[in-house]
């Protein structure tokens, strides 16, 4: 299943390189897409921001993915143009909390899940490993690799979960059984 993930193509990487992003570029965007306000967005306001982002070109979305606020990143992570979510994951403003939120989403693309799962820095955080293992979009081979690092109570919950692949659930159960035998 890992084979479905494709790294960015040379054309996509070239587009990234050509898109020179500077802090001054933030002035071209509405402040509500740049400034972190800490306020909770209403569905109407979120829809309004989504509409503004939909009208942007790919280079504009790339700039926004780097310079934008948390709400802009939440919208852009679901963009259908493959490069945009990958740029969101490279944003210097991205926090572990943002990554955890993305890893928990069932409606996120598999490319995003795989990119998160391949980032060693993010995998240092237990909640991200658990979220990836619990996400049905995570390829089996990746989810199974994380099982050895999970706590017994989480393995127990995964072994009973109907939301993940039966293979991952069964392997979680086997991992837990092996641990219990080793403790005796």
- Rg (C-alpha, Å): 19 Å
Q: Quickly give the structural class.
A: mainly alpha
Give the fraction of residues assigned to helices.
55-70%
Mean pLDDT: 88
Low-pLDDT stretches:
1-5
As a percent range, the share of strand residues is under 5%
Helix run count: 11
Largest sheet: none
What would you call the shape? elongated
Number of strands: 0
- The tally of structural domains comes to 2
- SSE string, helices as H and strands as E: HHHHHHHHHHH
Distance between the termini: 36 Å
Walk me through this protein's architecture.
With 184 residues, the protein is an all-alpha fold. The protein has two domains: 94 residues, no CATH class; 72 residues, no CATH class. It has eleven helices and no strands. The protein is elongated and about 65 Å long.
Helix and strand layout, with pairings?
Blueprint (H helix, E strand, L loop, with lengths): L9 H9 L24 H12 L3 H10 L2 H7 L6 H6 L7 H9 L5 H8 L8 H9 L5 H8 L4 H9 L5 H18 L1
Helix pairs in contact: 2-4, 6-8, 8-9, 9-11, 10-11
What's this, in brief?
It is built from 11 helices and no strands.
Keyphrases for this structure?
2 domains; 57% helix; 184 residues; 11 helices; mainly alpha
């Amino acid at each position: 299943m890992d084979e479905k993930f494709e790294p960015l193509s040379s054309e996509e990487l070239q587009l990234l390189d050509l898109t020179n992003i500077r802090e001054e570029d933030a002035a071209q965007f509405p402040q509500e897409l740049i400034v972190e306000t800490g306020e909770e967005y209403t569905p109407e306001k979120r829809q309004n921001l989504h509409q503004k982002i939909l009208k942007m070109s790919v280079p504009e979305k790339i700039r926004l993915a780097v310079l934008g606020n948390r709400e802009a990143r939440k919208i852009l992570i679901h963009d259908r143009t493959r490069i945009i979510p990958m740029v969101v994951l490279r944003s210097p403003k991205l926090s572990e909390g943002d990554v955890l939120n993305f890893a928990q989403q069932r409606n996120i693309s598999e490319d995003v899940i795989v990119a998160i799962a391949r980032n060693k820095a993010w995998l240092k955080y237990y909640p991200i490993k658990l979220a990836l293992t619990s996400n049905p979009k995570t390829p089996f081979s990746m989810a199974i690799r994380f099982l050895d690092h999970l706590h017994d109570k989480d393995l127990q919950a995964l072994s009973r979960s109907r939301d993940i692949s039966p293979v991952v659930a069964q392997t979680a159960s086997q991992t837990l059984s092996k641990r219990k035998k080793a403790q005796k």
